[in-house]
Structures are given as structure tokens and as C-alpha cells.
Amino acid sequence: GTLFFQVIALLWLAFYKGGVKPTLQRLNSFLECCSHVARSGITTIVCHRDDYSMRKRGTISEYIAQAKENLIITSISLTTGISYEAITETFNELLLKGVDITISLLNPTFGGAVEALSKCFDKESDALISEIDHSLRSFYEFWSNLGTKEQNLFHLKVHSVVPFASAILIDVRSPTTDGIIQLETKSYKAPI
Questions:
Q1: What does the pLDDT read at residue 192?
Q2: How far apart are CA 185 and CA 159, in angstroms?
Q3: What pLDDT is stored for residue 24 in this prediction?
Q4: Residue 59 · residue 52 · CB < 8 Å
Q5: Would the CA dihedral through 26, 31, 34, 35 be positive or negative?
Q6: What is the pTM of this model?
């Protein structure tokens, strides 16, 4: 249902913006992509953060709480989750249930990426470095207060590449349940 309406909306937008000939070429590419998506088993596309609440999960914390076996989050700084949503409380609940959690944030010492991405957030590089450092310190403090079993389930990493998207992957390593992958290809609140 939802995927069908998303396809129709994209087709309408393609005709409206690009004229008939370029649209037919894009339509062919789009339909080819849709066939790959259908074969992969993807059943839902989450277009933006407002979809969290449309799917009865109003925040990132509520969204990730559905993890049963594993959770992977790749982000720039994950500041929103720490500062406004108390995401570590949700992490703690998941860890107590045995969910394996991996968090990967941008390496704050990776200067070129920090410089480029800080412009997306309309802030100075030092401010972005400070946000990432704050998040890493917060997660380390969280980890250090966990029991040994939970510490072994919580993995904090940094990546030294410019990510093309932030990602939340829920139960993607599970042999028993369908996984969920949510990609956000534009920095949150950044201009398009």
C-alpha cells in the first residue's frame, strides 16, 4: 500500500519536473530499481523523520526500541539522541534484553570530513568536533557504568570516511526476523 503510493508520487514528480522524454528514461531506471527492491524483500521506505510518528514511533528512541537481537547506528554525532531523547536509557533497556548494539560516529580527528560536514550543519568545524567529542564521552561514560555482560554487547566505534547517509539498522543480522534499514541521506535540518 504505502510503497505503491510512494512510487506514484515519485512518478508524478518526475513528469511534473522533467518533461516526457527525460521522464521516460528516468521511469525506466526507476522501474528497474523497483524490481531490485521488490526482489530484495524491502516492504517499506521511510522517507523522512516525520515517518517515525506516522509509524507509531515518534522519536528515534521509540523507533530503535523495537530491536530484538541487534542494533547498528551510524551517524555524524548522534547529538539529538543524546541531548534531547535520552537514547542511552533505551540502549540500557535493549542491552538488558541481550540486544547487541554498535554505534559508529564520525572520527572527530578526521579533519577533511569534519570541515566539509560542518558546512552542512551551518557551524564551525570546532563546534562539530565538540559535539562529536561530547557524544563519544557520553557513550563511554554510559558504557563504563554497565555490567560486564552489557559492556560486551555495546560497541562504540568511529569512522574515518564521509558517510553518504546516517543509518539505523535493526535486527539485520537476525536469522529469525526481518531486519529494518533506515537511511537518512541528508543531514538532519540541513538545507537541501
A1: 45
A2: 17
A3: 61
A4: yes
A5: negative
A6: 0.72
Chunk the chain into consecutive blocks of 10 residues (it has 192) and report each block's average pLDDT, rounded to whole numbers.
59 56 60 65 58 60 90 87 79 97 92 80 87 93 96 94 81 80 65 48
Concatenating the DSSP letter of every residue in 29-76 gives HHHHHHHHHHHHT------STHHHHHTT--SHHHHHTT-SSEEEEEES
Give the contacts of 129 (CB within 8 A, at least 6 positions apart): 108, 114
Other Cβ atoms within 10 Å of 71 Cβ, number: 26
Query: How big is the chain, counted in residues?
Result: 192
Beta bridge partners of 180: 170
Burial 81-93 (b: 16+ CB within 10 A, else e): bbeebebbebbbe
Task: Give Cβ neighbours of residue 165 (< 8 Å, ≥ 6 apart).
Answer: 74, 183, 184, 185
- CA contacts within 13 A on the Cβ side of 190: 16
Residue at grid coordinates 543509518? 167
Residue corresponding to grid cell 533506515: 182
How many whole angstroms separate alpha carbon 82 and alpha carbon 86?
A: 5
Looking up cell 509509524, which residue turns up?
A: 55
β-pairing, 166-170 vs 180-184, is: antiparallel
Q: Tell me, what's the pLDDT at 156?
A: 96
